[in-house]
Amino acid sequence: MRAIVYEEPGKYRLKEVANPQAKDNEIVIKVEACGLCRTDLHLYKGEFIADFPLIPGHEFSGEIVEVAKNVKSFKVGEKVVADNTILCGKCYYCTRDKDLFCENFRSLGCNEAGGFAEYVKVREEKVFPIHGLSPEEATFTEPISCGIHGVDVIDPQPGDNALLFGAGPTGIILSQLLKYNGVTNLVVAAPTQFKLDIVRRLAADEVIMVNRNDYSEHEEIIGGKYPRGFDIVVDATGASTMAERLIKFTKYGGKVIF
Ligand SMILES: [Zn+2]
Ligand SMILES: [Zn+2]
């Protein structure tokens, strides 16, 4: 099959590789769509948990073309999406029900073969039917799952007000999840007008333009309007410099997430 292969940091090729073969409880999916996110850029540079050579792509969806003999709940032809993580279930964190911190964490598209290929192999328990979603829509399952995990951690309460920095895909997804999970007043701050327009239409009660060159501008606006701060302050920009600036917008007893 053809696949994108990251061969070393900063270098990739479209090349011919062996097709995955399903065994035991494995399923082979013919990839129909695969999303890209900043994680892919980190992996491309050899950062995060990259393990080369690597077929990237952790946000894939497609059609089942092969099921191994022990697979019970899926058939060839079904449209599916997959959880790309592989957790050991035995390490210090897994045995304490904190398996996202698994010490033997493997991830399709990060350090195991992922979805930028014609076919990808996944274990049955990580496969989910997409029930009529388009392949492109289904690729959002992975980033939305990350957002839902974020909301689980934030645990918003009815009546909370929240300030969220960033209106990229993660910010837009998180905004909607916060709004539909109890946040009463959601303010989103970001530097790009068209993204603010999207988030305003979908979830935010108020949007504030961020001046990347002069943080004091938007910080004064926010501080002036919300002198007591917010119950929840979230950074969805991924910029480490942002984290330390969040606290000044947080109410006493509030939550900061980055
Ligand atoms: Zn991603
Ligand atoms: Zn583990």
TrEMBL record:
It holds the Pfam family ADH_zinc_N. The keyword Zinc applies. Keywords: Metal-binding, Oxidoreductase, Zinc. Residues 24-131 form the Alcohol dehydrogenase-like N-terminal domain. Residues 169-257 form the Alcohol dehydrogenase-like C-terminal domain. The keyword Plastid does not apply. SUPFAM superfamilies: GroES-like (SSF50129), NAD(P)-binding Rossmann-fold domains (SSF51735). One of its GO terms (molecular function) is oxidoreductase activity. This is Enoyl reductase (ER) domain-containing protein. It comes from marine sediment metagenome.
